[in-house]
Amino acid sequence: MKSEHQPLGVAAPGLDQASGVAHRFFTRQGGVSTGLYGAMNTGLGSQDDRQAVLENRSRAAAALDVAPDRLATPYQIHSAEAVVVDAPWGPGLGPQADAVVTNRPGIAIGVGTADCGPILFADGQAGVIGAAHAGWKGALTGVLEAAIEAMERLGADRSRMVAVLGPTISPEAYEVGPEFVARFLAADEANEEYFRADGPNGRARFDLPGYIAARLRAAGLGTVETLALCTYADEERFFSYRRATHRGEPDYGRQLSAIALREH
Fold first, then answer.
1. Which of 54, 186, 201, 205 could join 196 via S-S bond, C-beta 3.0 to 4.6 A?
2. Separation of first and last alpha carbons in the chain
3. Cα–chain-centroid distance for residue 78?
4. What pLDDT sits at residue 6?
5. Is 228 within 8 Å of 195 (Cβ atoms)?
6. For residue 186, is it within any domain?
7. Could you give the 3-state DSSP secondary structure of residue 35?
8. What is the CATH number of the domain that holds 242?
9. Positions in the chain short of pLDDT 50
10. Structural domain includes residue 77
11. Domains in the chain: how many in total?
12. Parent domain of 35
């Protein structure tokens, strides 16, 4: 059993070294939700008990030394939209976007995922942070680059940025059809390297983590890390939309990945 004093979530070395930054890739462990949502479901769009979700979000905020009402997450729509957070909003009242950035200390920004890639960004020297939700559509259409550019408008320098990809579905669990592959090849024939033709029934496997990491490196960031954690395979620690779908479950939880600038 986890000690209640054990820190929630997973930390990344690169972000741990960023000056003035607190962060966590939270897991499904350490919350109060029950059943399918046990235990740290932070997804406001799920059918979980709302008070349980709010308590879980409050625990996440506390782990970042931020008040519960200072946690800002967007209404995610698988877009390439990035927004600047100048002040937090109420739970579920965020703008439609898939990346959030800020230079305001004491505000935690984050994204929820359940197979898609959560990316946390920081330029500790400039005091600018970001969080992005990148499924295949967001990654392909530019949500990562949108987050980086929004951070630059606040004074960040991409050569100093640290970007870390958190728990994401691995290619071993991500089978796709030919139309999916065709979409990526139409965008860039070099994308063929992110597909393996060894899935069941001749289907391809897509390397979403590899694709996201490559886009981040191509953008010229100073440091790019990936935690290499698979949401589908690690049921004890992570929610997975695809795993829930394969089992015919009616809903699924979401884990939060969040980052904050410490108040001095």
1. 205
2. 35
3. 12
4. 66
5. no
6. no
7. helix
8. 3.60.140.10
9. 1-4
10. yes
11. 1
12. 17-154+229-261
